[in-house]
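Exercise 7. Given the components listed, write out the predicted structure of the assembled complex. Treat all entries as one system.
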Amino acid sequence: MKSSFLSADAGPAEPKYSETALRILEAAERLFVELGLEATSLRLITQQAGVNLAAVNYHFRSKDALFEAVFARRFEPWARDCLRELDALEARASAGTARFDAEAVVMCYVRPALALSKDPSRGGALFVRLFSRVLVENHRALRETLSREWGHLVSRYTEALGRALPELTAEEVAWRLHLGFSVMFHAFAGNDILKLFGRSAVSARDPDLIVKHVVPFVLAGMAATRGEGPSG
Amino acid sequence: MKSSFLSADAGPAEPKYSETALRILEAAERLFVELGLEATSLRLITQQAGVNLAAVNYHFRSKDALFEAVFARRFEPWARDCLRELDALEARASAGTARFDAEAVVMCYVRPALALSKDPSRGGALFVRLFSRVLVENHRALRETLSREWGHLVSRYTEALGRALPELTAEEVAWRLHLGFSVMFHAFAGNDILKLFGRSAVSARDPDLIVKHVVPFVLAGMAATRGEGPSG
DNA sequence: GTCTATACCGTGATAGAC
DNA sequence: GTCTATCACGGTATAGAC
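Answer.
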């Protein structure tokens, strides 16, 4: 078993939380998902958790750090799933039992996202929505952690997509990945921009339905011909 | 000249603002763009505008309403440009001088966005970024206004895309529009999700560069084959 | 180590004097 | 129209009880 930090070893992870800390963590998760980060006050969290306000500053450091902890608890197992998918794809491709194309790479993200969506014990669709919304909104609370701990995950997807689309330059691959993931995050976030205008016919909540529509869109976009002309 | 409320007549618009109100409006716009909505306090705005704190509640009603005013001043002329583009496309198509395809429809959004990006007197690229960020983040401040005043704009794009892609069902058209606009908003917002992970090679600031990469992606996505299989 | 009460300062909003 | 004073609420910090 290769144990490079680039691949998906199961860490011990799950730092032990005291009972108080866990109560805070769980109340916070529920409220962040329901109300969003800004709209959830520490006083509401601690009240629902049945603990003192100051406990959140003792066990976690700040509201942002609490959010980081809520996030990490759900995100890390998921990210490890993604890495395992990528490892498995590489293995299958080496063995000649799988094509290494854009669809295979995209599915290395979609499959774990879909599995998580359907597993309430790991946060389910609600967490996927929270996760995507947070990425889309670029929250300061996560910037440091994500780039320190999970930058290599993006590197893996970038390499994989570059291998799947060898006719593209590195810059083009970066753009396709950027755009493709933007749509997928957005779709999974359940944000319906057009609904802001009161005119959307899209019901964007069922994960299977999202995948059904978003995957063909993303695959076609990633495989687009450079500077496609007006008449195809 | 048909003058249905559905098409693009030039309204008088521009309600007269007192000098104090204008000073607030302009300081607010600059700061909202620089710092974001949440991070900009009314005390900072009024201080930079050289007016009293309470003036913002007198001239506008609340912080959200102030944002609405800042937004409307830039958005309305732009939205009218979009409507004019759609009207012009329909006219050219009727006259047989233009193809009514997905690219033509998408360009009805991209052209005004690009023009606005390059016109600092109307807010320029900074406002396009603010606008896109606000849509992406689904701000409560705009929900009511957008659906009341500009819902028909989305209806126009929906109809147009349906006409350009007649082989798709209405549900599919809604999804393609939703996904396509999501990517474009996101790209124009300059949000780089992958940069959160510290690993993005995309420099997402130059509007022309954004268009160059995003348009082929969106067009390919919109024209995607239903449930595209693994081997194309 | 763990938990609590309480105080501090910045936020948006508002009432009422001028 | 403008300004001062004040409010309730937010995140945070700390002193001190157990």
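Discussion: Chain B touches chain A through 68 residues (CB under 8 Å). The CA atoms of residues 32 and 38 of chain B lie 8 Å apart.
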